[in-house]
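Supplementary notes for students who missed Thursday's class. We covered one full example, reproduced here. Read the sequence, then the structure, then the short commentary at the end.
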Amino acid sequence: MLLKAPLILGLIVLVPHVCSSDFLDIGSRTNYFILCVEFAVFHFNQVYPDEYAYKLLWVRRSQRKQFTLIYLMELELGQTICTKEDEDLENCPLQEGPEEKKLDCTFIVDARPWLSQFFLLNSTCVQK
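Structure (token representation):
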């Protein structure tokens, strides 16, 4: 019994260090990150109560949670003149003048690309 106590104590000390929830900076052009950004913007357009679609303007932060495929991203989105039903949002012009809207958004996405599955774990957006 006495030998089990140091082993358990060692595991308690080791587990938080090995299973750190820290996000690490990654390149914004990595394959899985790009897929997660596309998923986040698509999901945002589906649920945001606006008739016009938003598109990606800028990636402010790109990170991956250590030992996982969970990605944290800070994105700047701009409102387009296209509706959500339009197909080519990448080439759709942005709203201009008093109608112009930009948002700063943070998304956390869990990717399972081998199953073509993506899950939005958290999202927050604020208007600029």
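Commentary. The mean pLDDT is 87. The chain has one domain: 23-127. If anything here is unclear, bring it to office hours.
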